[in-house]
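[Automated response] Your request has been received and processed.

Submitted sequence:
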Amino acid sequence: MLNSLLDTLRVVALPTKTNFRGVTVREVALFKGEHGWAEFSPFLEYDDQESAPWLACAIEAATTPAPPLLRKKIAVNGTIPAINDKKRLEEIVASYPGVTTFKIKVGENLAEDVARVAWIKSLNSKAKIRIDVNGSWSVDDALRNLYAMFEEVGTFEYVEQPCATVEELRELKNKIRIPLLIAGDEVLRKAKDPFTVDLQGAVDFLMLKVQPLGGIVRALKMAEHHKLPVIVSSALESAVGISYGLKLAAALPRLDFACGLATASLMRSNVADLPIVDGCIEIADCEPVLEGLDVSAERFEWWKNRIMRTSKLLS
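Generated structure:
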């Protein structure tokens, strides 16, 4: 089966509009199976073990039908990178038409973080604000920084992964004296077995990313197992990967929050359009246009070899 998928393999390079957590060009591998195009795009620094769920997801997407979809469109949040150019931030906000929820990357510099969050809030005083720390704070850092941000902008809808471990998240929730809801991301997707992680008293929302969690079927089982409200988010994928994330969001029995699936707006080039209309993206199969986006022959072989190595880790 893998050989037939590899016969269709294309690897493309998609430049981003800004430096997004160190990424200025996103390389993604795409292949086509009976049920359409699929994406394999673990970040370049990930080893084969961490990449294995991403490949399992891609094979699932290409070779199996999607589960029943309960929605035709998904409300999305805007994702704001860690920059502080006010004009550029205004342009990014404007690239999310109709969106009323924004997730802002923070965690590198408190003064810049506060200024960025306050500026986004000033552009739309009624917007719901989320922040994403990517697990970079200690508990003491989180207490200090969250109090400072609360003074400036008030309550967040949630804070995504303020600290790295479940134990730290639980300690933070016990110590903090302002309203705080936590979304767990890395604590799940980087766990050896996400089903055995005890989130009690540490996490209020599950952040589900379809590739890192191994596909729609496994992500749905995870949501059922942990019994927490869910937000579906992207891993800075191409339109192909995001389209599959949209199908995960559409398949959830319950979905009450805007999802982080509008990151195509952060790309300068993409393989397909995912238009945002009134703050939502419609569910649709993705037929990519790949001309002019292919990587070099050397990079193609690198990705092909990565897929072949990683496939040996799948049971």
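Summary generated for your ticket: Residues 48-63 form the longest helix (16 residues). Residues 224 and 253 are 9 Å apart (CA to CA).
If you did not submit this request, please reply to this message.
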